[in-house]
Design goal:
single chain; alpha+beta; Ribosomal Protein L22, Chain A; 3-stranded antiparallel beta sheet; magnesium; Ppantetheine-prot_Trfase_dom; EC 2.7.8.7; fatty acid biosynthesis
């Protein structure tokens, strides 16, 4: 059963300008595994983190570092949820996450489904 859906879109050029203007933002938004990726990939991952929060219903206290996007063995992106986000997901009964990422024509997008 679908317990939550989240989607987010990021303008890549605007996101890149924000990262350049505020260098410390990378460490506040991305895990160590994510930080050195190309900007288009970071934009897609930021969209995924926002989409996770939306799929969880926008609970207070959930931080960007609590949702990490990793490449699975098959090459598909996978979500790894920790901290407060994992607590909320558990309370909602989330058993599985589905994630789709894309970036093209200057935008990055993520779609997240929380399944119970």
């Amino acid at each position: 059963m679908i317990l939550g859906i989240g989607v987010d879109v990021v303008d890549i050029a605007r996101f890149e300008a924000t990262l350049e203007r505020t260098p410390g933002l990378r460490t506040r938004l991305f895990t160590e595994r994510e930080r050195d990726l190309p900007v288009r990939s970071l934009a897609a991952r930021f969209a995924a983190k926002e989409a996770v929060a939306k799929a969880l219903g926008g609970p207070r206290g959930v931080g960007h570092l609590e949702a990490e996007v990793r490449r699975g063995e098959s090459g598909r992106p996978e979500l790894h949820i920790t901290g407060r986000a994992a607590e909320v997901a558990y309370e909602l009964g989330v058993k599985r996450w589905h994630l789709s990422l894309t970036h093209d024509a200057g935008v990055a997008m993520a779609y997240v489904i929380a399944e119970g």
